[in-house]
Amino acid sequence: MSLLLEGIVNVFHWDVLLFLTFGTILGIVIGSLPGLTSTMGVALMLPLTFGMEAVPGILLLIGVYFGSVYGGSLTAILINTPGTPASAATVMDGYPLTQKGQAQKALTVSTISAATGGIISVIILILVAPQLASFALKFSAPESFALALFGLSIVSSIAGKSMVKGLMAGTLGLLIATIGLDPIGGFPRFTFGMPELTTGIGFIPIMIGLFAASEAFKSMEDIFSENKVKVAIDKVKLKWVEFKVLIGTILRSAGIGTFTGMIPGAGADIAAFVAYNEAKRFSKDKEQFGKGDLRGVAAPEAAGNSVTGGAMIPLLTLGIPGDAVTAVLLGALMVQGLQPGPMLFESNGPIVYTLFVGMLLANILILVFGLLGIRLFTKVLAIPKTILTPLILMLCVVGAYSLGNNYFDVIVMFVAGVVGYFFKRFEIPASPVILGLILGPMMESNFRRALVMSQGDLSIFYTRPITVVLLTIAIITLFTPLFTKKIKKNA
């Protein structure tokens, strides 16, 4: 309780509030622009936090993350175009409501549901995370290796349509991670005599290139196309009687989203569709769904936004990113000298609880700005690509260069951007590359440390209970998508 009170005091400093507010507003804007994802927004803002204090820097990124997940619903409801993958389920009932002349009502339900779902997920995070972190204190090298392998096993879940393409991308990330000095022996590997490669290739320039620059390159294909948005928002307000019916749906969907967020590899888009399906299943008048039912907006929005708090649980307690956005946040925490994992709560308790309070406040800000800015945010959709695309590329260059103040990182970013462009063309997921880059070194170093501990005896990996459980879960996680696809194919 004392740490929570200290966190409340720390959040209410003018600089922390300023950056959190700015991040939340920026996130809503980014989310409302089709094509600009939460991952891309957080990746673009990441370099700005390098010279900042840990708390305002991380909360700026969290504000962008939370705000962008909510912002995607704006375009989903208004122009039938989900701003983010998480808002794809909102389209099914959100846009029909707009066609009925109830756009403002739909946006109000979306805002309230998103904020409520987010707040519930953060409360669960505060209650669950410390206990999970205490359990994780029992980890040593074998357990850490198994944990990293478990993190890599979610590649099969985020591989998209093709498992082979996802595994190829993950392998590419692992290969890039081997460049640089050997973690145990200290001798150079795959540096080809280039001093820039001695310290390895940083994952931040690659991340910016894969997610942000690639999108800019892709948008160049139709940069001069028409980009006009015509939206008419009525003044029909949500009534208490209508909202009262939605409370059960919002609470149930928030629980679904939080639990889904805790599972590495299961993102907000999955949670949104599951919650939509459950809302429909619990409904007595299922035929109304898809025709403009407010429950069809409340369910995916509450679930999608509650994933944000749920995804922070494995990130902060185990150091395992649940999706692409938390992979970027993992990098941000490490840049600030904070190593996510069980020791984070022991060594940086006040900072952790300050972040918790900041997350709660971010969801409250979403509620406030969402309700006040319904009309204003729609105007962002009219920004022409001829302005937006060069701006994104400029931010990519500045972000990559600011990491180490050298042009080599800019070259890496551009190469990653070109690779990311072709990834998009051939529908190859980029997230497994980042997972391989981040978790590969952790897996290798702990595997070799474990062998040093056991003097080369591999039995250390199947005689320790926690290690065995984690390795078993990793195998199940890796092969479950394969069996699921096979069952669906035979059905």
Strand residue content? under 5%
Count of DSSP-assigned helices: 20
Largest sheet, in brief, is: 2 strands, antiparallel
Element pattern in H and E: HHHHHHHHEEHHHHHHHHHHHH
Name the quaternary structure: single chain
> What's the pLDDT, averaged over the residues?
80
* Strand order across the largest sheet: 1-2
Q: What general outline do the C-alpha atoms trace?
A: globular
Percent helix among the residues?
over 70%
Distance between the termini: 52 Å
Low-pLDDT segments: 227-233
Transmembrane segments: 12-34, 54-79, 106-129, 135-155, 167-185, 197-217, 315-339, 351-374, 381-401, 407-423, 430-447, 459-483
Domain DUF112: 17-435
InterPro entries: DUF112_TM (IPR002823)
Keywords: Membrane, Transmembrane, Transmembrane helix
Keywords for this entry:
491 residues, mainly alpha, 20 helices, 71% helix
Q: Can you describe what's shown?
A:
This protein has 491 residues and is mainly alpha-helical. It is 71% helix and 1% strand. A two-stranded antiparallel sheet has the order 1-2. About 1% of the residues have low confidence. This is Tripartite tricarboxylate transporter permease.
